[in-house]
Every structure is written in structure tokens, then in C-alpha cells.
Design a protein that fits this description.
With about 325 residues, the protein is an alpha/beta fold. The chain is built from 8 helices and 11 strands. It has a 7-stranded parallel β-sheet with strand order 5-4-3-8-6-9-7, sandwiched between helices. β4, α5 and β5 form a beta-alpha-beta unit. The chain starts with a helix and ends in a 27-residue tail after the last strand.
Length: about 325
């Protein structure tokens, strides 16, 4: 598969349509498939649909209060992402900005940890996080980054107006370019011997501080919290149902299955030695085409040999071509 032009072309086309591609070990594929025959590649459907950044910004402009958005930079642990989604929705955030690369996808593990919050928090998928932050700043948002070496403490941070709170990766924190795009780098003072907090815990503390200064102000005793005004987003159009379910196509080890981009619930196990040459089309001809914003995010997980360096050129960043991009669980 690694040196097949057809296989690489299929992956490029899938990636161009928003599919996440991750290379893992053979043992990891066995864990993902529960021991089933996978022959080197498998496909997962996303636990939730996403939208574009412009749609999210337009929806937030209708809520009648300063918008609060979350963004993650290089957060690859689905447990952390799910916990952030849960805290963000509970404390009044209006949306999440999620990069396509170097980030955990919206898998079942994320949905499970989020405990239902993923159904209520709009998620905007962006190709480049820093371009997205720049676009948000042009629309009047202030970008606040969480960093252990930040120059502003949580107590003195300016948290007024439309905000974007950015959380970095579990180990390295925010990237250098993302730091430059932040209007403030906020640190949380710690007293004990532990040098840092979990990414989701630190995010929850900052979200609580925003809520304490905002909608929590004046609440006493058992007074109920004010109702959260959610962004007004366009309802997704119903997709026509095909007369017959497309059968899962199996291919040789040099090609991958045709990936129907218009069916977010299609599961596939790829690669068999009995299929003739694969056409370059990803979408089956009998299936209607949908707008890109209505297509649920999918993820391809491909096996990488343990004794080889990653050599697939899929247009990904260098760190995204070598090893794990995130922990995905069924």
C-alpha cells in the first residue's frame, strides 16, 4: 500500500474531502477492529457532524451576548477533548474550533467522555487553526491562550468581550505560531509540587473564571442559572436514501476501498486480493452528491510497518506523517 500510486491518490482525495488519515501499528489496528480481519486499513465514522467557521461565526452573531468559543491546538488525547467539550458546554461556551490535523477526531471515545455535550456544542472544522484565529480576531474576538509560562495570571486576565480560549497539547502546550496569535497568554498559579495541570482541567478552570465574571455574577443560593442562548445554525438538509446499500468493496493490497463521501454512517473494511483494479472515483455513481458541510467527518487509520519510517506523502505536516496522530477507540 505504501508505494501504490492508486492507493496514495485515494488517500489524497479522501483527505481533500475532510477525512482524517492516521498511521498506526498493526497491533493498534487489531485493537480498533476487535481482532477482525482488516488487512492493513480501516475506516471510522465520526460521532458528530461539523460545520465551517463562517457558519459558526454567523450563528454566534445572533445570540445577543458576547460569544465564547473554544479552540484546541495539537490536542491528540480523545479523553481530554471529550472532557473539554463537556466543561465548555456546561459552563456556557457557544462552540468549538477543531483543526483537521494534529488533533483528536470526534470519535466515539470523545462522545462518551463528553456525556452528551457533543450533541449541543457546535464544532467547526478548520484546515489551519492559526488562519482561523486570525479570521476570528478580524471579527472582534480576543484570543486567550493557556500557557504555563504565560505573563498574565488567571486573576488579572482580561476576559471581557467575545473570546476564543485556546488549549494546547498535553505535552508541549501551544505551538509557537499559536502563541503569537494570542492576545493574552494566561497562566494558572500552582502551589504544590505538581508543575502543571491536565489540559482539560486547566481549561475548565479558565472557563469557570469567565463564567464567574459573566453570567454567574449576582447568583446566590439556589437561584437558577440564566438560560444559555445557543447560536442559530442552519438545519442540515435531509439526504435522500439510496434504494440499495452500497456493498463494501474490497481491493488488493495496492488499493483501498471506494469511500462514499455522502454516507457518514458507512463503515468499511478494506483490502482483499480478489478485486480487480480500482477506479479513481471515491463516490459510487449511484449515490447522490451532498454539500461538503453536510458530510460527517470520517477517519482512516492505516497500518505502518514497525521497522520502517513513515514515507507516505499525503500533504500532511511532517509531524503528522510519523507515528500516532491521536488515540482513537471504537
Amino acid at each position: 500500500m505504501r508505494f501504490s500510486p492508486k492507493f496514495l491518490q485515494l488517500l489524497r482525495e479522501a483527505k481533500a474531502s475532510g477525512v482524517l488519515v492516521e498511521e498506526v501499528t498493526w497491533a493498534r489496528l487489531g485493537q480498533l477492529t476487535g481482532g477482525a480481519v482488516h488487512q492493513g486499513i480501516t475506516l471510522q465514522t465520526a460521532a458528530a457532524e461539523t460545520l465551517d467557521l463562517q457558519t459558526l461565526m454567523e450563528g454566534c452573531a445572533t445570540i445577543g451576548e458576547p460569544a465564547l468559543l473554544m479552540a484546541v491546538d495539537g490536542l491528540t488525547d480523545p479523553q481530554n477533548l471529550g472532557a473539554i467539550v463537556r466543561s465548555a458546554e456546561a459552563l456556557g461556551a457557544h462552540g468549538l474550533v477543531l483543526p483537521q490535523r494534529r488533533s483528536a477526531g470526534l470519535t466515539g471515545s470523545v462522545a462518551k467522555v463528553a456525556a452528551g455535550a457533543l450533541e449541543h456544542l457546535p464544532v467547526a472544522r478548520v484546515v489551519n487553526l492559526n488562519r482561523a484565529l486570525d479570521t476570528l480576531k478580524q471579527e472582534g474576538y480576543r484570543v486567550v491562550g493557556l500557557a504555563a509560562e504565560g505573563t498574565v495570571s488567571l486573576e488579572e486576565a482580561d476576559l471581557e468581550g467575545p473570546l476564543v480560549i485556546v488549549t494546547g497539547s498535553e505535552g508541549d502546550g501551544l505551538s509557537m505560531l499559536t502563541r503569537r496569535n494570542c492576545d493574552q497568554l494566561v497562566r494558572i498559579p500552582l502551589r504544590g509540587a505538581t508543575p502543571s495541570l491536565n489540559a482539560s482541567v486547566a481549561t475548565a478552570l479558565l472557563l469557570y473564571e469567565v463564567a464567574r465574571r459573566g453570567w454567574m455574577k449576582g447568583l446566590t443560593g439556589s437561584q437558577p442559572a440564566p438560560r444559555l442562548v445557543r447560536p442559530q445554525l442552519p438545519a442540515p438538509a435531509a439526504s435522500p436514501e439510496p434504494e440499495h446499500e452500497p456493498a463494501a468493496a474490497e481491493t488488493s493490497s495496492a488499493a483501498a476501498q471506494q469511500l462514499p463521501a455522502s454516507k457518514p454512517d458507512a463503515s468499511a473494511e478494506l483490502l482483499d486480493h480478489q478485486q480487480p483494479e480500482l477506479e479513481s472515483e471515491i463516490r459510487p455513481a449511484d449515490q447522490p452528491e451532498q454539500p461538503a458541510e453536510q458530510v460527517a467527518e470520517q477517519q482512516i487509520v492505516a497500518e505502518i510497518p514497525a521497522n520502517q519510517e513513515s514515507g507516505i506523502d499525503l500533504g500532511m505536516e511532517p509531524d503528522a506523517r510519523s507515528g500516532f496522530l491521536g488515540d482513537i477507540q471504537l
